[in-house]
Specification:
Layout lengths: L2 H13 L5 E6 L2 H9 L8 E3 L10 E2 L1 H4 L9 H7 L4 E3 L3 H16 L5 E5 L2 E5 L10 H16 L3 E6 L2 H8 L7 E3 L5 H5 L12 H9 L5 H5 L3 H8 L2 H8 L16 E13 L4 H17 L3 E11 L4 E7 L7 H12 L9 E13 L12 E3 L10
Parallel strand pairs: 2-4, 7-8
Antiparallel strand pairs: 1-6, 1-7, 2-3, 5-6, 9-12, 10-11, 10-12, 11-13
Helix pairs in contact: 5-6, 11-12, 13-14
Length: 382
């Protein structure tokens, strides 16, 4: 895309019709379900995690968050920060049942629902089934129905697009509602630190600060060409977001972009000892992909070091692996491309498939190995 094409894309975004988007985010969902079903846990710090030095936190109640406990934190760290925390092993079957109940409430208002996880979703309520006058009224009713029917709380953000609605839902957590009207977009956005932009992690934020970008207002002040110089193709996205532009629609029934399985070892082990686990995980991923009748052309190997540094190796093929043995062989071959020395120990390994093929997909060219630093504890490779 040329600079003129990019500018045209920006102009199209500003002239596009405004949507009414609601982002609903359940408050400390897993922990709140546990407190709901166990009255003795209410008002107390609850941590959803298996106890042990190899476990990580799945969720923490707001009482536990007050002590600094956060999701994806090592359980031993959470226990040290909050010695009185109540640790509860996760019960995903129960959480999924509540997630389905929340989804049923959403469906009373719109069919345009894009789940992001068990506890959050985008809703396009530009037209709503209840014929309520505003998106704000829709969000209020949804939150009331969740509270009255499920005895749980949810926070919601209302805005003209997904990007702004996502920020808004976090603005008055927990149990809050925040609305960004179209005429308020710039006055709301410009003072925000760039870290509030969804997708801007610590690495990107550090790169921004290195070139003098601390707030969204700093982003807004820069030319598109400058942002593309520093951040490549992502520069256009940043240019648009600084102006409150996000043309991405709510996509219902989004197909998962990957299938993966991972496991944490009881003790840190050298890379050479990971083969048995890689074989087991590859078999699990193979069965899962074929249960869904889907074929993928990219094989991914994920590793996490003893120091919690994550890395991946991936290879995209001309055609999907034809057997579990082939998938396993590729995953093991990717392991050979990890050059960290024999003394390096690893705490986690994962195998995944992505780049799923449809009937219309042409064969893709052979791809090269890629290395990406990522920090996912729970969600695989997506």
């Amino acid at each position: 895309m040329t600079a003129s094409d990019a500018q045209h894309a920006v102009d199209d975004g500003t002239s596009a019709p405004l949507r009414k988007i609601v982002h609903v985010d359940m408050d400390a969902f897993y922990a709140s379900v546990e407190q709901r079903d166990n009255p003795e846990f209410r008002g107390k710090p609850v941590v959803v995690a298996w106890k042990g030095k190899r476990s990580v936190v799945c969720a923490a109640s707001y009482e536990a968050r007050w002590f600094g406990v956060r999701s994806a934190m090592p359980a031993v760290t959470a226990e040290r920060m909050c010695p009185n925390a109540i640790f509860i092993p996760p019960d995903f079957t129960r959480y999924k049942a509540f997630s389905r109940a929340v989804r049923e409430i959403f469906q009373r208002h719109t069919d345009l629902i894009e789940p992001l996880s068990l506890d959050e979703a985008y809703l396009d309520v530009t037209e709503n089934k209840m014929q309520l006058a505003t998106a704000t009224r829709v969000a209020k009713m949804i939150r009331e129905q969740i509270r009255e029917e499920l005895n749980l709380t949810a926070s919601a953000g209302v805005a003209p697009n997904k990007f702004l609605a996502k920020i808004a839902s976090d603005w008055k957590k927990p149990n809050g509602l925040f609305v960004i009207q179209p005429h308020e977009i710039q006055s709301f956005l410009l003072p925000l630190p760039v870290g509030r932009i969804p997708g801007v992690g610590q690495v990107t934020e550090s790169r921004m600060k290195a070139v003098g970008i601390a707030t969204v207002g700093d982003l807004y002040a820069l030319e598109l060409s400058t942002l593309e110089h520093h951040f490549g193709s992502y520069g256009l996205r940043l240019y648009q977001l600084a102006r409150g532009i996000d043309r991405n629609p709510v996509v219902p029934n989004r197909v998962s972009k990957s299938i993966s399985a991972e496991d944490t070892f009881p003790e840190d082990i050298p890379l050479a000892d990971t083969e048995p686990k890689i074989r087991l995980l590859a078999e699990k991923v193979w069965k899962s992909s074929h249960a869904n009748a889907r074929a993928a052309k990219t094989v991914v190997l994920k590793l996490k070091t003893k120091e919690f540094n994550s890395l991946t190796r991936s290879l995209t093929l001309l055609a999907p692996p034809s057997s579990c043995d082939e998938l396993t062989g590729i995953a093991l071959a990717l392991r050979e491309r990890v050059e960290m020395g024999p003394k390096q120990l690893f705490r986690l390994v994962g195998v995944g498939l992505s780049n799923f093929q449809t009937a219309e997909d042409p064969a893709s060219p052979l791809f090269v190995e890629e290395l990406a630093e990522r920090g996912y504890e729970q969600t695989g490779f997506q």
